[in-house]
Amino acid sequence: MAHDGSVSIRPARSGDREWILALAPRLHEFGPPPWRSRDVMDHAVTASIDEGLTTPASDQTVLIAEGADREPLGFVHLHGATDFHTGERHGHVSDIVVAPAAEGRGVGAALMAAAEAWARARGFRLLSLHVFGENARARELYERLGYRLDIVKMIKTLR
Fold first, then answer.
1. pTM, whole model, 2 decimals?
2. CA separation (Å) from 19 to 24, 45, 73, 127?
3. Would you place residue 146 in the very low, low, confident or very high pLDDT band (cuts 50, 70, 90)?
4. Does residue 110 sit within a domain?
5. Residue-averaged pLDDT of the chain
6. Does an H or E element contain 23, and which?
7. 78 with 94: CB under 8 angstroms?
8. DSSP code, position 36
9. Dihedral of the CA atoms 41, 145, 6, 30 (nearest 10)?
10. Could you report how far apart the first and last alpha carbons of the chain are, in Å?
11. What are phi and psi of 72, to 5 degrees?
C-alpha cells in the first residue's frame, strides 16, 4: 500500500491477528483516568479490533506498519463514522498502536498518513479520532499532524 522510508503499510492479514490483539493493550499504558478500569478498557478495545479483523466491511480496515525486514511495527484500526451534528459520514481512527521497539521511528506518522489516504479514497472530507486528555504523547503527534480539538468530553465521578 503506502511506503515511507523504512516503513511500509499494508492491510492486515489473518496471520496478524494474534500480534495485533496482543499489542492492543498498549493503548492504555499512559495511565487511564482513575474512574476507568484498565481491564475493561483493554477488553473493549481488543473486542472492537477483533471485530474489525474478522468481519469484513467496506468502511472498516486494519492496516499494519512493517519494517524493511517485514517485522510488524504497529497498526491502525479505521472505520466510517457519522457526525452527530451534521450527519456527515467521515473516517475515524478507532485505534492506533506502535510496538515499543518501533517508537520514535516515524511509525505513528506513517500509520496516520495511511489512515488519511484510506479516508480520502472513500471520499471522506474529515478524519476523526479520540484521545484521552492525559495521553500527552499521542496528543502532541496528532497536533503536529494538523488535528485540532473539536468536542471535549468531561466526566465527573458521582458518589
1. 0.91
2. 9, 14, 10, 26
3. very high
4. yes
5. 92
6. helix 17-23
7. yes
8. S
9. -30
10. 50
11. -70, 135
Q: Is residue 152 part of a domain?
A: no
| CB-CB contact of 16 with 66 (8 Å) | no
**Cα–Cα distance measured from residue 19 to residue 25, given in angstroms and rounded to the nearest whole number:** 11
Backbone angles phi, psi at 62, to 5 degrees: -125, 125
Beta-bridge mates of residue 66? 8, 72
Alpha-carbon gap, residue 16 to 140, rounded angstroms:
28
Q: Could you tell me which of 81, 26, 102 has the C-alpha nearest to residue 111?
A: 102
Q: Is the predicted pLDDT of residue 30 greater than 90, yes or no?
A: no
Identify whether 108 is part of a domain. Answer: yes
- Residue 32, burial from CB neighbour count under 10 angstroms (0-12, 13-18, 19+): middle
What is the mean predicted confidence (pLDDT) over 73-97? 97
Range of the domain at 40: 2-144
User: How confident is the model over 99-114, as pLDDT tens digits?
Assistant: 999 999 999 999 999 9
